[in-house]
Amino acid sequence: MPSSASLLSNDPASAALAASPDVAPSRDFSGLWVPLVTPLRDGSVDHAALAALALRLAAEPIAGFVVCGSTGEAASLSDAEQQAVLATVADVAPGVRRVLGISGYHLADTGRRLRALGSADLAGVLLPAPLYIRPSQAGLLDWFQQLADASPVPVLVYDIPYRTGSTLARDTLLALAAHPRIVGVKDCGGDFAKTRALIADGRLQVLAGEDAQIFPTVAEGGCGAIAACAHVQTARLARVITLLRQGRLLEARALWQPLLPLIEGLFEEPNPAPLKALLSGRGEMTGDLRAPMTSTGAALKARLLALDATLSGGE
């Protein structure tokens, strides 16, 4: 079995799978996307730390950033803060594609926010079901179709029932695939039969949204991942995805399995608290979060730092 270091090196076949075949580049979301945390200091967004983080990650083999998603604590940021976060990321890493998280529960207001993005130079938006309301499947279909009509950029459906309270049925997602602006799904649905059905249908790109499900999702034919854990061990995760898409299962597994204790630790407490603790231990930002989120304890932080250091030493 090749060493981890040799598996992380580039090879001529890697470039061939940088994008999905037969998908227009502007509609292709394959690869590894980093849902950025939002660094905070003394109650405000720490734009210096955010800029440094985006610069570091921009040098890694990623497909792009997701800005103001759940990992970015968007629900606790004002509209002005979200726009400032997006501007900082765009300023320091203009060549990296950006997807913006847009969530809400008021259809007209959410539509207005989407229509205002025409000049934002976005690759797409990440759109969940309406929060708290729990509509029927017909209501969910109408929500996404109307908002996709309003969006000036491609839409990724965010299927995450444990945050929204709404489960998107397989048939609903397959119906949404007919909309010309809905191009993919961030899959946190917790139903792998549905995941397989979406991949088999082929009209929507399927990105793993649960970090622990990256390997099986991409091995089954998913196109990539939106993964909070990709703030660290980024090149290794990107390589796992490339190897899986090339069908090189054993090589991918050799890189993937040592990552699992780190991934499990990063989600031992609600995201992004453990991730921010790890990044603070690396000296990249404070571990501050906005209430009601609470900081991770010292023991988990120390364990995450040790796991990250061990993985880095093995590369």
Keywords:
315 residues, alpha/beta, TIM Barrel, eight-stranded parallel beta barrel, two-stranded antiparallel ribbon, 14 helices, 10 strands, 13% strand, globular
Describe this structure in words.
- The protein is of the alpha/beta class and 315 residues long.
- Helices cover 43% and strands 13% of the residues.
- It is built from 14 helices and 10 strands.
- It has helices spanning 4-8, 47-58, 79-92, 107-115, 137-150, 161-164, 170-176, 192-201, 214-219, 234-245, 249-256, 260-266, 273-281, 298-314; strands at 31-35, 40-41, 44-45, 64-67, 97-101, 124-128, 155-159, 182-187, 205-208, 224-226.
- The strands form 2 sheets. Strands 1-4-5-6-7-8-9-10 form an 8-stranded parallel β-barrel, surrounded by 4 helices. A two-stranded antiparallel sheet has the order 2-3.
- The model is unreliable at 12-17 (pLDDT under 50).
